[in-house]
Amino acid sequence: MDKEERKTINQGQEDEMEIYGYNLCRWKLAIVSLGVVCTGGFLLLLLYWMPEWRVKATCIRAAIRDCEVVLLRTTDEFRMWFCAKIRFLSLETHPFLSPKSVTHKVSNGHAVHLTENLAEENRHEMSKYSQTQPQQVRFFTHHSVKYFWNDTLHNFDFLKGLDEGVSCTSIYEKHSAGLTKGMHAYRKLLYGVNEITVKVPSVFKLLIKEVLNPFYIFQLFSVVLWSTDEYYYYALAIVIMSIVSIVSSLYSIRKQYIMLHDMVAAHSTVRVSVCRVNEEIEEIFSTDLVPGDVMVIPLNGTVMPCDAVLINGTCIVNESMLTGESVPVTKTNLPNPSVDIKGMGDEFYSPEIHKRHTLFCGTTVIQTRFYTGELVKAVVVRTGFSTSKGQLVRSILYPKPTDFKLYRDAYLFLLCLVAVAGIGFIYTIINSILNKVEIGVIIIESLDIITITVPPALPAAMTAGIVYAQRRLKNVGIFCISPQRINICGQLNLVCFDKTGTLTEDGLDLWGIQRVENTRFLLPEENVCNEILVKSQFVACMATCHSLTKIEGVLSGDPLDLKMFEAIGWILEEATEEETALHNRIMPTVVRPAKQLLPESTPAGNQEMELFELPAIYEIGIVRQFPFSSALQRMSVVARVLGDKKMDAYMKGAPEVIASLCKPETVPVDFEKVLEDYTKQGFRVIALAHRKLESKLTWHKVQNISRDVIENNMDFMGLIVMQNKLKQETPAVLEDLHKANIRTVMVTGDNMLTAVSVARDCGMILPQDKVIIAEALPPKDGKVAKINWHYADTLTQCSNSSAIDSEAIPIKLVHDSLEDLQVTRYHFAMNGKSFSVILEHFQDLAPKLMLHGTVFARMAPDQKTQLIEALQNVDYFVGMCGDGANDCGALKRAHGGISLSELEASVASPFTSKTPSISCVPNLIREGRAALMTSFCVFKFMALYSIIQYFSVTLLYSILSNLGDFQFLFIDLAIILVVVFTMSLNPAWKELVAQRPPSGLISGALLFSVLSQIIICIGFQSLGFFWVKQQPWYEVWQPQSDACNTTRSLYWNSSHLYNETNLDTHNIQNYENTTVFFISSFQYLIVAIAFSKGKPFRQPCYKNYFFVVSVIILYVFILLIMLHPVASIDQVLQIVCVPYQWRVTMLMIVLVNALVSIMVEESVDRWGKCCLSWALGCRKKIPKAKYMYLAQELLVDPEWPPKPQTTTEAKALVKENGSCQIITIT
């Protein structure tokens, strides 16, 4: 039964959840209803806040297959609870679903995939989805995803489209014909409407949700309590503050919803044409599309309403919404394995693997190319929230909570305050009972102490600093959509940078070419645009092997291709629609040299040129294009010179890959050395290759051939050398980060040696540092996985000689400070493949490599995200700075992600910089540190405020007195709110310092600071309270008391005047109250100044003019009413008259208090850390952060770093610590 009751859905995925079944229980419901009535609705609120309690209190456990309610719990570190109601989807209501037609419907076989066996599908479907009633399907919705009951899995699972478990062959054979109307209607019933709905909640709904926040409920409780005690003014002030807070919160939440809604709704409903089974074209709304529909892509383009795979024709697409790159991408039809020469029928379609053939939702199709009579068609694979855009919107709508020590500590701190309040609560009750106080007064006063200890203004005060930081960031061009992350940015101690477009300029410049003739490299040539080279195969390859296209007459495409094409000075012409219609096939794109480039007379001596003599003009037509694939690291084209009988295949790509696909005899012997020389200098190198195709390859055959047949046995032609310049500000910014002890890491899709070279140029790797390249190889032919270690600078030298220079091995430096451990003299570099192998087979080595890994090259987008996670696993606070192109996942996963692109992809990133330069990184960290310090200052101040006020009230309760309504009002509004909102205004310090602010409130120095101030304040308050009672003029105050007038006779004569006066019911007016009020008023200002820290993270206090002016005005005012009483103010504040010498004494107490407080706070700042470390010096302290602990371990590890030319092998079976052995290969 237990197995039946608890299952896991979305297993192994990011949103994995445990699921439990429950049924409603009548008697439990009745008890809860009674409890709600008895607690005045408070139990209802508690159950609203806690979904788990709500379900457990009103339901009983049941088998998941029969339950009415499901309880879900995430399996991540947050363990969040959600509940959902089971609903039924009735299938019998649909006219198409008569029993006769059941066998003809395509349903979603396996309850998760579209069935490929057409005959069985609906019967199969019914048996899987349903239990007793064959026409009903049980489902629930969570986070915009429907989960249906699946009888085969005995679990709930969400409906998948054609994106999983469907082979490429079946897409052509079974799904390319389209759906019948019946199939379509049936699927629509299951999949629902194809739209990404972002409902903007009504103001009322948002208001209720916001008001039911525990914090506002506590404020409401406080307000009701104060009103019963006639503290109307302060209650009104809190009400006004809450209303302002709620309104601003509602405004920002609603604004975000509207923005997201507009972004999604801009193109949510369009009219689309779909093909039906009998080849008729039907026009429907895009909201009616379902997986399996065959959509016709219009000639003039469209915005894609779903994810679809191209099965006919070619499309040019702008994918900036997803990738951040506004460069048009050419999408070709999915290779059809059944007609390919090399069969690959078993390959499954995947939108990620086949993204060059997939049109993603939200991307714009600019134009299409097609065969005459054949439309450009695409099979719909995913709809609604399952699409790539839908997943992006879901991640914004339902973000993961940010886990930050500061916030966890804040809750702990509040719990401590609640405990203190509890003590005061009990003390008040006991004291009042002993003094025979009325029961009503006891209840109000004891509850009042809770509202004093846990200040209702705390969240508003905490938010102020973040709001100010957000405004300052906006002024320097950094926009933030997740304000809570600003504080976390103050903790960053490692920043990952993308290379191209982030550290270096966006575009590449052509530096030159180096051709190969007779298997030898010629000298590098700078100018490609000349008559001698115009008809060479090298230039022909540059002219044809690209993905450029003309959009509205302007050449556009990949910047690298553009630069290359511009360098040769050729002209590209594309066929118009009319031309294509005239011919029976697609017209090729034609390229030809500009007229001035062609030699006037054709050279007769050269036999090879005879073919070119026939046509009057020299043109090359591009017959078939195999787009660039990052997985293959190459692209190729099939082209034909006008008038030539045979076609040519041209290929360009990563030099290592191209060389491996060429005939070995055509690759120069010194290829590796030449390539290494270029990459070491930071050049980007692209290799070109060519071969003549057999004459039997006709145009039609080429259209269906697989690229593997073309891309082999090539002739190596040479290298194109591109230069990628560093951005001007890069070295200076990286130097600032290094000075501030912030590690920098490069994550790039580029070549390894180029990346290492750029890292050296920009100062990420210093000239004297060693670079160790980790080359990991996966297990193969029964051999275990292994890592070969090379030293980058000695790669070539070591292969010639087995003797290794002992100086090549870096010396470890022993540092005094743990923080400096990371600044050692060796760096690891690895590519994406090696990184994946290390994560999989060398789990114990991965953290060590994270400690010194500086260059990660050839990284795929998901590998970038894995790298961020790996760094976070060793307790780094990771920042990521990228241009948004393929960094979305990493930007989102990092503690602080900064996108340098303002495109829609930046929605995934918490921060977006207006200026595309990395100078925003130090700015963000400085502001983050300032905001974090502000949060600490405010929290400490608010804690002291509540404790000072709590103690004042507790002292006064002991004599059955209290602070007056206007005294509370003056303290809470005039002092506290003014101070809190102005002390947060300190701007960030001008530069980054090596020191980092603490990450949590519960750290030794911080706690010592707060506790010492509490003791000082309590001490001086108690001193005043008890000393006033020792004064010769002191007596229990009565309305006729007049301590200011020492002439006794006058006092007695006037006594009868006061007899008739109404007595002070709350006993507010007395000498103790006045003394405590004055001393505590000064104490709030003293701790505000003591806690307002300036350097090294914020500008000094005196630069914060609003704060300085506010504090001076408050000091002057309190001093004035203390030393020179004003009758009307005294009357309002319910202050009594005390002798002048006592006023001076109070001033002395306040001055000594100020002196002691500020001196103690300064000494805690200066020597607190040293004293604590000295006190804890007896026991050796283990660093909290894993990376520091690792660094300590590695200092004494003789085997680390690995020696050059050694190999580390993974042990075959045991995967425990120390599972790697180092084998030295000589």
UniProtKB/TrEMBL annotation:
Record's keyword annotation contains S-adenosyl-L-methionine: no
Subcellular localization, as worded in the UniProt entry: Early endosome membrane; Late endosome membrane; Recycling endosome membrane
CDD domains: P-type_ATPase_cation
Family classification: Belongs to the cation transport ATPase (P-type) (TC 3.A.3) family. Type V subfamily.
Chain ranges of the P-type ATPase A domain: 272-396
One GO term describing the cellular component: recycling endosome membrane
Catalytic reaction(s) noted: putrescine(out) + ATP + H2O = putrescine(in) + ADP + phosphate + H(+)
Residues in Cation-transporting P-type ATPase N-terminal domain copies: 176-226
Keywords recorded for this protein, A-Z: ATP-binding, Endosome, Magnesium, Membrane, Metal-binding, Nucleotide-binding, Phosphoprotein, Translocase, Transmembrane, Transmembrane helix
EC number(s) given by UniProt: 7.6.2.16
Protein's recorded name: Polyamine-transporting ATPase 13A3
Residue ranges of the TM segments: 27-49, 232-253, 410-430, 450-469, 936-960, 966-989, 1001-1028, 1074-1092, 1104-1128, 1140-1160
Gene3D superfamilies (UniProt xref): Calcium-transporting ATPase, cytoplasmic domain N (3.40.1110.10), Calcium-transporting ATPase, cytoplasmic transduction domain A (2.70.150.10), Calcium-transporting ATPase, transmembrane domain (1.20.1110.10), HAD superfamily/HAD-like (3.40.50.1000)
GO biological process, one term: intracellular calcium ion homeostasis
Membrane topology qualifier: Multi-pass membrane protein
Boundaries of every P5B-type ATPase N-terminal domain copy: 13-150
Protein origin, superkingdom: Eukaryota
Taxonomy of the source species: Eukaryota, Metazoa, Chordata, Craniata, Vertebrata
Gene label: ATP13A3
Matches recorded under InterPro entries: ATPase_P-typ_cation-transptr_N, ATPase_P-typ_cyto_dom_N, ATPase_P-typ_P_site, ATPase_P-typ_TM_dom_sf, ATPase_P-typ_transduc_dom_A_sf, ATPase_P-type_domA, HAD-like_sf, HAD_sf
Gene Ontology molecular function, alphabetical: ABC-type putrescine transporter activity; ATP binding; ATP hydrolysis activity; ATPase-coupled monoatomic cation transmembrane transporter activity; metal ion binding; P-type ion transporter activity
Reported function: ATP-driven pump involved in endocytosis-dependent polyamine transport. Uses ATP as an energy source to transfer polyamine precursor putrescine from the endosomal compartment to the cytosol.
